[in-house]
Structures are given as C-alpha cells and as structure tokens.
Amino acid sequence: MKKEGTNKPKVVIIGGGFGGLEAAKALKDKPVEVTLVDKKNHHTFQPLLYQVATAVLSPGQIASPIRRILRRAPNVEVLLGEVTGFDLDRRTVLLKDDLSIDFDYLIVAAGARHAYFGHDEWENDAPGLKTIEDALEIRRRVLLAFELAERDAMRKGTHEPLNFVVIGGGATGVELAGAIAGIARQALAKDFKAIDTRSAKVMLLEGADRILNSYSEKLSERARKDLEDLGVEVRLNSFVTDIRPGEVKVGDEWIDSSVVVWASGVAASPLGAMLGAETDRAGRVLVDDDLSVKGRPNVFVIGDMARVENEDGSLVPGVAPAAMQMAWSAAKNILGDIRGEARTPFRYKDKGSMATIGRNKAIVEVGRFKMGGFLAWMAWLVLHIVMLIGFRNRLFVLSEWIWAYFTRERTARLITGDAEDLKDALQFITAKPGRAESEKASRSKVA
User: How far is residue 180's CA from residue 263's CA, in Å, rounded to a whole number?
Assistant: First the structure.
C-alpha cells in the first residue's frame, strides 16, 4: 500500500497503545502523512484491565476505537492489520495477506506480553493480563470457580476449597489479589446460598523479599499489611517451579488452586527482533539516545519495546507515562529532521508511581513524597479518571465506582461462552493430575 499524490514524509506507527496513540496525536496536523497500524481496532486502558478481570468494569468502559480517537486528525490514517516483518532497506512494513506499507519514518510501539521464563506451557493453566481477552478469560475462571463450588455444595453437601493464587508481587499482582479478595468477602457474599464465599483463600506469591519492589521499603511493607488486612496471604521468597491444572508448585510444595493468574514478568513484542536490532533478554531493543535503532536513524522504537537507561544507569520503567514521553520525543525529532534541526536526546521525567490495593487502600510515591491509605486511593481514582480516553468512558467508570463503593457490588459479572465451553472450563478448573501418595502427603493447603 502506497500513499500517492503527496510529497509529505510518510510516518508509519506500529501499535495503538499508549506510545503509538500518543505519537499519532503528536503528529496530528503536522506536515507528515501518518498511518497507524494495529491488529486490534481499539486502544485499551491497561491500568484498569484488572477491574475488568474482577468484574468491576466492562470492556467497553476501558477501551475506545482507535479510529474514533483519531477522527479529528486529517493526516492520520488507521489500518487494521498484523505486521509480519520489515524490509528496512526498502523502507517497507510487511503485513499479512501480502500487504505492505512504505515509510520514510517508522515508529514501532507494539508493547509487551507476559513472559513465563521459558515455561510457555504454563500459559493455559495461568493466564496473564495484558489484553481485554486476557481479562475476560480471568473473569470467567474466577466467577466459574464460585459457580462450581455452589453446584457441588448443592449436589454433595460439600465442595473443594476455593483457592486463588496470583503469581507476581508487582502492581498488577497486588491489584488482582486485592480485588479477588474483595469479590469473595464482599461482592459475592450474599449471592450464594450453599457456600460461604468469604471462606475463599487468596494467595499472592512473590519471588523477591518484598512486593512492589519499585516502591520504597516503607510503602512496600504498608501494601503487604493492607493485603493481609483484606485476607490475602502474601508469600515472599516463593519461586514457582511448576504449574498444572488445579495446582501450583513452590519449591517442593504443591498448593491446590481453583484459579491461577500470572502477573510476573513481561517480554517485549517479537517485532523488536524482526527489526534485526540488538535486543536484551526481555526482547527490548537497544536504542540510541534519540530512541532510534542503531544504524537506522529513521526507525524509532518506543514504550515497552525499548531498552532505555536513565542517566544513573537505571532502566526507564515500562509504564504508560514513559511510553507517552517517548512518543512525544520521537515525534519531535521526526519533525525536527524535516526542519533540518539537530535531534534531542530522550530524557525520562519520572512523575511518580501509584498502585491500588483495595477499598480505601492505595500507595503513591512521587520523588520523596510518599502517601498511603484513603487519600492515596482517592488520588489514584482521580488520576485514572482523568487519563481515560473519552468523556463517556469517564462518566461510566465513575458511576460504576460510585455504585461499587456504596453497594459493594460488581455489575460486570457475566460469564461468557456457550454451555459446552462452560463445561470444558469447569473441568479445566477442577482437573488435577495424579501424583504419588508420598507427594500428596506433603501437599500444602492454602493457609
């Protein structure tokens, strides 16, 4: 595919996440022709994916069609397609179905996926959380676990213990663990008659000696205590060595689990390797200080795909503000090239971090300023409402949060799929492979 009838430089952006979308906005109404390519037609507000996974919000409340977001950018075209490779010498992006797009400048912002540290076979048993589809699958498994327990209790008078295991003590893992505990102890407590959902166990496994390692030790410890107040068992220095349907192995100990969720480790999009550039162990591209690929000044890599170091040698974190700042930097340098100006190195400005743990519980860290509790939780709510794209989304999310706060209910508790799918899912959740009697004797129930 080639754009004809214009002498303006052609900029192709790969990815409609925070980085790609912000790059397109930065180039809006500028003397360039822009094509944004994504294999999905929507932008997802990833910081709130866990709320879709835990039935607080519906997918449409945290996602917006990319075309609608960019409808007022006359020089930006949106293309639904999947990138299969690059011909950088010919300045061409290759797509599925034998399509191609020529470019003068290329910005690759395809994001990252969860990584299983060489155990990709664990993904079916422990889904991660990066997309709307991931969130819906986790929501389905969590809600089905309660439904299955209710069915067994009505039929047999008893049911297998409800045990939820979240692997990874970063922000996503902490938010998921706290939200699942909230579902069990509050949102569903009055809805089931044969089971007591409040007896469900939630465990958070973290391989390091504390959760939320990017925060100060004081806030990390506060978050751990807040989780335990919600009923979450936090296990530190706990490395997962195996995952099977219905169980997780930590060291030599097997832990029964109704549902397992993976929130540990990420790997950059494989598109980075397709560029022929040098990458690190996580697949991130090593870029120059202007975010361009070494030896390819017209090719930029931004967001989770880029390995960028701060002046002190630390890595720029894979968070939305960093991706957005990189987008503006790349766009600025492209426009500077057109005007014949020297390029400006990228400098990350850390605007702080925040994570929510549960109702009235969150932590905020901005430089030396640290805060936890209700005020931090309110700050988290306000920031995420402001960052959401679209007035309608902000209004709906705010109304859902107000409803959930005062009623303690979740309105997005739909289990999708037909009867056969649900039957297979129930079998998946409850299946446990046979083990030797000696191994079974050492099995640990979630405390």
Answer: 14
Low-confidence ranges of the chain (pLDDT < 70): 1-6, 391, 411-412, 416-447
Query: Do 319 and 188 share a structural domain?
Result: no
CA-wise closest residue to 426 among 246, 265, 253, 297: 246
Q: Is residue 379 part of a domain?
A: no
Q: Beta strands of 9-123 (E only): which ranges?
A: 10-14, 33-38, 42-44, 63-65, 76-80, 83-87, 92-95, 99-102, 105-108, 112-114
Say how many domains are in the chain. 2
Same structural domain, 274 and 204:
no
Q: What proportions of the chain, in percent to the nearest 5, are helix, strand and coil?
A: 35, 25, 40
Phi, psi at 79, each rounded to 5°: -125, 125
If asked whether residues 76 and 165 sit together in one domain, one would say no
pLDDT of residue 420: 55
Write out the DSSP string of 271-293: HHHHTT--B-TT--EEB-TTSEE
377 assigned to some structural domain: no
Nearest Cα neighbor of 238 from 226, 256, 252 is 252
> Any idea what the CATH number is for the domain that residue 327 is in?
3.50.50.60
Q: Which residues contact 247 (CB under 8 A, 6 or more apart)?
A: 254, 255, 256, 257, 432, 443
How far apart CA 293 and CA 121 sit, in angstroms, is: 32
pLDDT for 187 equals 82
Query: Among the options 175, 206, 365, 400, which is catalytic?
Result: 175
Is residue 206 part of the annotated active site? The answer reads no
Q: Compute the distance between CA of residue 214 and CA of residue 170 in angstroms, rounded to an integer.
A: 8
How far apart are the C-alpha atoms of 115 and 272, rounded to whole Å?
15
> With 0-12 CB in 10 A as exposed, 13-18 as middle and 19+ as buried, what is 146?
buried
Residue 352 forms part of a structural domain: no
The residue among 130, 29, 119, 129 whose CA lies nearest residue 70 is 29
For residue 169, what are the contacts with CB-CB under 8 A and spacing of at least 6? 204, 205, 206, 208, 210, 211, 212, 213, 234, 236, 264
Domain range spanning residue 151?
Answer: 120-264+411-441
- CA dist., res. 431 & res. 121, Å (int): 16
Position 443 scores a pLDDT of 47
Strand partners, 144: none
Q: Are residues 130 and 83 in the same domain?
A: no
Question: What is the structure's pLDDT at 437?
Answer: 41
